[in-house]
Amino acid sequence: MAKRSKSGQDRLDDAARAGWLYYVAHNNQDEVAEKMGISRQSAQRLVSLAMRERLIKVRLDHPIAHCMELAQQLTEKYGLESCEVTLSDPTSDDPAIGIAEVAANQMERYFKSKEPIVMALGTGRELREAVKQLTPMNCPQHKVVSLVGNLAPDGSASFNDVIMRLGETIKAPHYPMAVPVVATSSKERDIFCAQKPIKSNIALAKSADVAFVGIGEINEAPPMLTDGFITQTELDGLIAAGAIGEVVGWAFDNDGTIIKGETNSRVASVQLEQPPSCHTIGVARGNNKLPAIQAALAGRWITGLITDESTATALVG
Amino acid sequence: MAKRSKSGQDRLDDAARAGWLYYVAHNNQDEVAEKMGISRQSAQRLVSLAMRERLIKVRLDHPIAHCMELAQQLTEKYGLESCEVTLSDPTSDDPAIGIAEVAANQMERYFKSKEPIVMALGTGRELREAVKQLTPMNCPQHKVVSLVGNLAPDGSASFNDVIMRLGETIKAPHYPMAVPVVATSSKERDIFCAQKPIKSNIALAKSADVAFVGIGEINEAPPMLTDGFITQTELDGLIAAGAIGEVVGWAFDNDGTIIKGETNSRVASVQLEQPPSCHTIGVARGNNKLPAIQAALAGRWITGLITDESTATALVG
DNA sequence: ATTATTAACGAATAATTGCTTAGTCAGTGA
DNA sequence: TCACTGACTAAGCAATTATTCGTTAATAAT
């Protein structure tokens, strides 16, 4: 082409032509160049210009597309490191449907690593379901450690067996914490945590590479209460103090600020850090958990989120 | 990922995710693979699956897009080697607007070739305009030759000066034909064409690598008549014989079949071949030329077309 | 008129993508 | 049980695409 200078419009026209030939007609850049009588580099520049100038619109015709967009918006809005949004199944009331599979997938991904990693686990039915989904594998190089006690209020150890099951499923050393979730007093908690094995468990948990945690709602009838973690009196106190949700037993208010006193002064779980010292992935969905999830995000207690489409939609709004 | 076998739906979901990450979020395949926890090969397969399954829709937001589609449809419908459709300018009546620039561009493309080429030129205001648009350049390696005579009915040589101007613009040897467009008799035509220089001109034209030709309409008041190429009587005869259009003086009917007798027995232009022996690009637009263009395409007198959006729209319909 | 600045280009080079091969592993059915 | 199937990964080559760099032409600013 002669060196007659072209207007920007002409250049955009050319870009549009090149973009059409490339993206719509599936020519490669050599063919585009040949058909337009320009060098391949010029064709490449035009093609990339067409993309830069948003002449080319790409869209994905699949329900997943909406989930991906929601995930991206959540990632940006809350500065997350990772976010995955699954399709909501409106025909099911299962609170773990969908997100458990995703959480299991992400766990397996970590376990497939050659490098030994330490994975910490919190509470929640979703996590329990996720662990159930896991494919058995052989990962003696990894360690899985609980962030919360496994002693039920009655003293039995059957309570939080998720760590045991996980460890057995992937044949990795596992470290449950032989303490109650909430001690009867601050002093008792300190005594528990001062024990050698518990101390080393806590140290291991604090060195974790990744953590998966459930997010619990605190309202009239939370799982915390029905599972017997806390008493009705304790719940009333938390609600009075503004508690809206909890992660590994630590209750926080609407802003994500940890509640002072109440059960928080007796929680035996590993103390969370803000921001978390390791990638901490929250796994939760559902309208009843919405305020709790929002607060956990606002308080930056989690750096990743696995949720479903309807919950994500509410969160970005 | 575990070896739990996945349903086709799940696989499409994955393909959609991969496609979204790749095409919408502009990750490369390594990043897609990392984010989905799969190998790059799997990511590649999913991305290409998403494209194959038409999950990814690409569209071009630019007026040109429509022109490109029209060009493709014309290419397929008439088996063309090349086709270019420009935007119609509804505010202008200039019959050469747009297509002259495109024709000039395509000519320049040929001239930029290192290899010596022979370009043949037909008649038409569009071609004249195109040549005017050409940027001067230095191409002594090429040759430009006329397909039609340059003698006006009054014997002056000023008539078809397009070849002269072209040759001068690009500094290439040029070969006008010193004969009238239509001889007064078949015998006169034969005498003209038997002349040494004319014979070699014709031979040169027949060896051309590419030809640009106008397409003339034959109706009540064609340029052929107003320019004095033919008389009213001759025109009446052509119309009576079913002539609808012409290329380099050769009149044809609706099907593109060359008219027997009439002026065709006296045309001094280089005889066209069917299909053309070289890439022959028709340059024409406008409603009044529509039947002529259609006939030229039907008769396969041209292997390429340069036209505008509204003409192309009518041609594909 | 002459000199900076900008824009565009081709050539070379780097990065990415497409594709093939070989090997592994789990589920399947004889 | 055992070959068979299918899907995967790793490796690596070939093809394609993106970027960088030095040059040149056009444009703007002295």
Automatic annotation (TrEMBL), chains A, B:
Q: Which UniProt keywords apply?
A: DNA-binding, Transcription, Transcription regulation
Q: Does the keyword section mention Cell wall biogenesis/degradation?
A: no
Provide the family line.
Answer: Belongs to the SorC transcriptional regulatory family.
Q: Which residues form the Sugar-binding domain?
A: 63-316
**Originating organism:** Solemya velum gill symbiont
For whether the record's keyword set contains Transcription, the answer is yes
* Record protein name field: Transcriptional regulator
Q: Which Gene Ontology terms cover its molecular function?
A: carbohydrate binding; DNA binding
Q: Which residues form a coiled coil?
A: none
